Amino acid sequence: MLKKRAFIKIVPFFLIVFFFLNYKNKNSNESYYSLNDKIAFNSSSKIKWIVVTSISEPTEQCKKLSSIPDFQLVVVADKKTTNTWHLDNTIFLSVSDQESLKFKSIKTTPYYSYTRKNIGYLFAIQNGAQFIYDTDDDNAPTVNINEYFNFKENDYGLVYDCSVESKILNPYAHFGQPQIWPRGYPLSEIEKNYNNSYVSGRRKCSIVQQGVVNGDPDVDAIFRLTKSMEYRKIDLYFDPSSPAFQIPLYKMSPYNSQNTLISYRGFWSLYLPKTVTFRLTDIWRSYWAQRLMWLINETISFNGPNAYQLRNAHNYLKDFNQEKSMYLQTEKFVDFLFKWRCKHSKFYLCMLQLSEDMVKKGFWLEEEVESIKNWIHDLTKVGYKEPIIVNYENKEPIYVKCEHKLGDFDQTQIRYTPNFQKSLDSINYGTEINENFQTLNYFQSECNKFNIDLNYSSKINSTESKLKFNFSILITFNHEPYEKNIVILDLLYKNHFQNVIFCGSRILDKLAQVRGLRKKFDSYNFIQMINFGSGDHHYLCMSKAIEMGFKTDGFLLLSDDILIKFWNFKKFDSTKVWYPFDLILGTVMDANLKLPWVHWPNVRNLISLWKVLEGMVGENLDNTETKIVKEYLRIIDSNQAFVGNGTKVKGAGSDIFYVPKIKFESCYYMTNMMRKYGVYLELAVPMLMAGLENNQSVQIMNGHFEWFGRALDFVSLYQKIDFYHPFKLSTIVNENPGKQYCKFYLYEYFSNSF
User: Fold this and answer.
1) Model pTM?
2) How far is it, in rounded angstroms, from Cα 501 to Cα 416?
3) Where do the H-state alpha helices sit in 340-387?
4) Alpha-carbon torsion angle 661, 663, 665, 667, nearest 10
């Protein structure tokens, strides 16, 4: 009985001690769960990680980051971080957790510092990361970043033309905001015009991919102090259709740590320096890293908007004070980096040499070198492989040269111009130009020659068009383009389609010779082809447009001599293939049969291509290509009119067709195969369409192809069709076609447009 009473008396004491210790543990910087438990509960061997540091309770942006599929969020604590911090699907690295990792970098990473993220980077690498999304707790993507960023070794797309003189590029101009600049951009470069010259082709994926942010983007304090208004927050947008682009070797652009994907090959570049201010650390990192990238043939790239930033409250004068050294030193820093040469043959030694040389030049302090030594030690400790130098600089002086790596870029030159967005000045002061009036005034002046009044000026009272398609239009030229035709076609379509692109052989070379219009044409989109012929393979323009990487729902390709009543296209499904004819393959030709047909050699090429595709399935193709070819052959087979021996082909007019985004990958591969085998367009295009879409799903455009130059009643025909070919714009200066164009086409155009 006494023992029982003693037990009853002692139990409350132990309960009090237990709850006290439990309360103390939960309300200290000690993690409630062990670090191993946190990893086991959350990571599940994920290869995509997100790293942020935070001193606040979980923000709404953090909650969104924690819910992104296939990504593991790790939040790095500081001494200010609340000791009750918790968020599901998140690994929280408390201060004691960080110390338990035994990284050398712990000793040289200060508290109360943004550079605590360095510990998070190392932790992610140690636990199997292959990609790290670098961002902040006040920033979250608005799109699926699994689809937004590129996780492949190689891809295709735009690379900035390295022959352009500028050393530093302004990425914001590429995305439709040429009047703003990113934090860390040299002030001496702000007044310079952006050159929009690119090349396009296969490329090695960048190790750093930076996404731009709508709302309050990452600009410096000078911009905010001079452009912000007292009662209006900065709220800017970038062109959502703009393709991503890559910075080539021997060019630079500042990038930040707020919306950036770094792949395994670039993990060495994650280090955030500690001896510069918070507003400078990620910018100095970006320049330091880019110079070292030249040694290993690695690059950075920029993607269009994928997030909206409602920036935490900032004292702009305080930001300005933190950024002062950036304003004063960036230009000198860039010049130093371009002149600097590595004396070693090992990458980490080059990294240390550059860091030491930056100390000598006063770009950061001496203790940065010790910190970087610890960073390199910890990278090695967690099993990260040191990059291998391929561009040696220690043997002889190198000269910075224009160079595009990996891909046949010389085949395609690009002039890309975004859809310019509302500037801050136009938002604040209402200075936006109504382009609809410009279009009307141009065509009204043309129709005045025939005494025809379009009579629509009173109805154009908005900068927006009432008819807008979410796909782009691609216009091809078989022969040398008429400069005026380009102006007319751009005016007709630019307010109604996402993008207007012109494509032709040596098109840029020819337009460069046009007196008085060269500067105007600099603001258009052009694809210059070399192996193009006289339009025999103009379908290759579709491949090159896809290659550019526009964020668009599809491409409508048409030759410059097709008249389209695009307002009739509202009835079509933009997720399906559009073509003027059905996709039934009914012509049977024996491979040994000789027919008196001008395109017979191309039929033989098509037969050879088909045999190659059938033989390559599962053997010489990668998984993606195998899937594409199998699906193409399956759909082709489903579109056969009948089963029998021989090869079934289709020949048809091919000056207009539409490919939706869902078919881009297959179209790109098969179009290039058609061109490789020299298949003529009037065989290649119908055969391409017949392998992309089942006949019962194709959207058939009602049009008229006139091949024999017959005199037709254009007026009565016009009322019945969606398009007409050929319609030569060069003829509308003449009275009869000019009157018909104004009276019928332009009248209907303005009736449906505004």
Assistant:
1) 0.87
2) 9
3) 347-360, 367-381
4) -120
